[in-house]
From TrEMBL, chains A, B:
Keyword Amino-acid biosynthesis annotated: yes
Lineage: Bacteria, Bacillati, Bacillota, Bacilli, Bacillales
EC annotation from Swiss-Prot or TrEMBL: 1.2.1.11
Name of protein: Aspartate-semialdehyde dehydrogenase
Gene that this sequence comes from: asd
Binding site for NADP(+): 15-18, 43-44, 162-163, 325
Amino acid sequence: MSTPTLFNVAVVGATGAVGEQILKQLAARNFPIKELKLLSSARSAGTKIEFKGQTYTVEEATPDSFKGVEIALFSAGGDVSKALIPHAIERGAVCIDNTNAYRMDPGTPLVVPEVNIDKVAEHKGVIANPNCSTIQMVAALKPLYDRFGISRIIVSTYQAVSGAGARAIDEMLRQSKEVLAGGDPKPDILPVGSLPVKHQIAFNAIPQIDKFQDNGFTLEEMKMIRETKKIMGDETLEVTATCVRIPVVYGHSESVYVELKQDFDVAEVKTLLAGAPGLVLQDDPDSQLYPLATDAAGKNEVFVGRVRRDLSNPRALNMWIVSDNLLKGAAWNAVQIAEHIAASRA
Amino acid sequence: MSTPTLFNVAVVGATGAVGEQILKQLAARNFPIKELKLLSSARSAGTKIEFKGQTYTVEEATPDSFKGVEIALFSAGGDVSKALIPHAIERGAVCIDNTNAYRMDPGTPLVVPEVNIDKVAEHKGVIANPNCSTIQMVAALKPLYDRFGISRIIVSTYQAVSGAGARAIDEMLRQSKEVLAGGDPKPDILPVGSLPVKHQIAFNAIPQIDKFQDNGFTLEEMKMIRETKKIMGDETLEVTATCVRIPVVYGHSESVYVELKQDFDVAEVKTLLAGAPGLVLQDDPDSQLYPLATDAAGKNEVFVGRVRRDLSNPRALNMWIVSDNLLKGAAWNAVQIAEHIAASRA
């Protein structure tokens, strides 16, 4: 029996909502860790975190934190990634970045393992983890892309507040309590913490996630558009997105219209989806079975349902795609990439 | 000075969520009422209701209730409309029906005043009020249809629980309290009261409104598809809908992708929308201004924003349309039709 190869692993942003889920995934998957370093901003340094029965003290992330680190998982915001990833690479680490910092960098692979795991091999020290709303959509569409080709995607999202961090969850729950008590809640964080205007999220739908771009789309919408093309490796793919925050804690839902390049049979589509890696088909109108955010929360899979041929365009399909935005949408996708790197070096 | 012509008016379903709003609208608009009859099922008969300082006792609706009634507004469910409207017509009443009973009947006008008020003249005793989610969409799209032509509409909805009645509101609020208290709420009504499977609506998104049809679409989705074509008077219009219930009390939101038949200028589109009857343009990304359900609640207008040219199809627009589903989506649209009838007889 051979000894498994073990790795020195760093988690940057270990005290955040995604960092917490990355640690859970590493533990649950029994990731082959030799030494684990938990890193954060100076503000959160000193925090104690349990991992597999051992207590770790979070340290401030600095360039020298990455000495000896072989795999580093970043989820501490784009600025931290931009500042520290070059130093981590210099010190020999392979970085898996969960922020927007490197996603559209032409030299950086943007990876959803079910779609383009082969791209990991092309990395120059950093592999980008896509945006949550993109990951679940491309994972669900990949089997259809391979079998029929896809010409166009029109998506409207129903995104959970956890995508905006732990403080947005707290705000939504606080506002909900205030409304239920007959009060008029003061919005404080959403839609975008760094922008001046705030809107109530409790019992509301906010059609803004991240900042507006000059073309009238939000950055979240542009992420879905650009990242989908890059991950699918197809710049001819036409993608439109409208991204909306709704009062859900965990789990993004997506209403997706997709035009295929070939005729298709709906039964074959369902069979393809049901058999695809990482996907679960939940589609039975007779028993009112379809994916729900509350069911997907806490699970690693992408759930697909409401699959039906469009009535106005026989080459188009409508579907409903749901996944936990902190898991497949972030932590689990990152740990999948880390497992692939570990396996290729074992 | 001439005396205004007054009318004998009946409100059927006076104790329901929509009936209540119809009475409020009739009072606010100072509708020219001679005698007002409040009707309901036997169960609610005897209920006392205030209207303009007078107390009315709700009576059970029977065929003979409509003797002498000139205008009858129905919102007591499709079965009641089917059973009683023929009797009301026989007794000389013009009926404005807020249910699904007559909407797709070829001989019945389906009217959104901003779109096709001229169709009222063709009635044979009943004018149908469209489905809430359809009304706000066609009201917003009509100016674009007239100016540029529309070839295709793809809509995903974010619908309030009040569309499923007062009991659905109560359920959503109760479930929210239970979740906030750490409990696991038992769903009881939604998605469809008469179907066996129930789903949690609090902090969730349910992609089912009304029953599934054989084609995999729900009845709500088919209403949007069929009614839009009928109201626009254009069977060539291609319409796709995905209808989703979210935890909002009042106000449906809609993410709408629309393909126009001609080139357009986005600034002209915004000017058209801002100047159209019944519409309010709320569209300024710089100040994070766009329609919100919580702002639209209690207002009669349809609010439009997030208007932007599609990046993948220069002939297409994306927009966000919000309105109070009980007002423009039901009571206000019905009272607008009643006002038109009254004016044409004055």
